[in-house]
Amino acid sequence: MKFFSPGQVIKIHVDDDTFTSEGYSTCDITTDRFMKLYEKIDLSSFPGWNDYTGESYLIKENSSGLILSMIGRPDRISEKGEWWRYDVYEVYINNRILNVFAHNIKE
After folding, report:
1. What pLDDT, in 10s, does the model give residues 14-24?
2. Does residue 3 belong to any structural domain of this protein?
3. Is 44 a member of any domain?
4. What is d(CA 90, CA 107) in angstroms, rounded to the nearest whole number?
5. In whole angstroms, what is the distance from residue 68 CA to residue 31 CA?
6. Cis peptide before 74, with omega less than 30 degrees from 0?
7. Which residues, listed in sequence order, are joined to residue 11 by a DSSP beta bridge?
8. How far is residue 64's CA from residue 6's CA, in Å, rounded to a whole number?
9. Does residue 32 sit in helix, strand or coil?
């Protein structure tokens, strides 16, 4: 289980597969190892339609960021297994504040 703390420096992890082992997508991946991240992930609707809101930005693999806070876990996600991957963090990266799933963060 991974937990990230406010002030912790992290890197963005672009997985080859946009889906977790449970079958949920945690991001959009483009060519050249970029990930599209958004200002907000809607915890009340994920997994569903239009879960990502606000401006989107392309962030390159291994870009460094700073954890600002843990936003929470989507309402429809269980506490069992590796569900910690769906914890959403507010991250300061590339002069922007964006929401990122723990699945896409590495130390």
Report:
1. 766 666 777 77
2. no
3. yes
4. 15
5. 28
6. no
7. 64, 106
8. 14
9. helix
DSSP per-residue codes, 65-99: EEEEEEEE--TT--SSTTGGGG-EEEEEETTEEEE
Query: For position 68, what pLDDT does the model report?
Result: 98
Helices vs. strands in the chain: H and E counts, helices first: 0, 8
> Residue 22 belongs to what domain range?
9-106
pLDDT of 6 > 90? The answer is yes
- The residues near 46 (Cβ < 8 Å, ≥ 6 apart) are 24, 74, 76, 77, 86
The pTM for the full model equals 0.88
Total domains in the chain come to 1
Quick check: is 4 in a domain?
A: no
In contact, 23 and 103? CB cutoff 8 Å:
no
In a domain, 96, yes or no: yes
